[in-house]
Amino acid sequence: MEGVPRSHWHRIGAGICIGREGQWVRVPADGAMHEPAGLAARWQRDKIGVSVRLRAGEQVTISNTVPWAYELASRYLRDLAARVPGRVRLEVIGRSAHGRDILGLAFGLEAGPPAVLVVSGEHATEFAGQHAVRGIVEFLASGEAEARRLRRELRFLVVPQVNPDGNILASMNRNATGANLL
């Protein structure tokens, strides 16, 4: 986060998130060691310094973007599809290497291949893209005139987390089999 003014991060409640043993924990940049995360984040002029307590051989993932955990994302997609069934359809487009559902939301025309495919989460801990796709989902599911027009004219398939195993394993750019899902 070097080069970003401290005042900006204070306004948005900056913290650092750590992925460890399938769990994401967010801590503030207050300099204190936070348990059970074993993580401390502190301001150093125009950047945040991070200290992590690791066990021998342990690997963790650190993110400055708020995580969207697979369980929360799945619940969100299922709830949205149930809340506005005439506007969106939940689809299981496949299964991960560990057997988790890869969920997509279909909007618009039911016949034919999707005219617009939106995918994120290939690199499972790059959460900003997943949050952006959530915004697309909210718009397409809305009652706004432009969203209604798009649903009448096109078929959309939106997949916010194409790599659920990577999300759960806090794997930066790999799935459970080690493949990079560029």
Q: If you average the pLDDT, what whole number results?
A: 84
- CATH topology of the largest domain: the name is Aminopeptidase
User: Assembly type of the shown chains?
Assistant: single chain
CATH architecture of the largest domain: 3-Layer(aba) Sandwich
Structural class: alpha+beta
Number of strands: 9
Instruction: Sketch the major β-sheet.
Output: 4 strands, mixed
Write the topology of this structure.
Elements: H1 6-11, E1 15-20, E2 23-28, E3 39-44, E4 47-52, E5 61-63, H2 70-83, E6 88-95, E7 101-108, E8 116-119, H3 127-141, H4 145-153, E9 155-159, H5 164-169
Parallel strand pairs: 8-9
Antiparallel strand pairs: 1-2, 1-5, 3-4, 6-7, 7-9
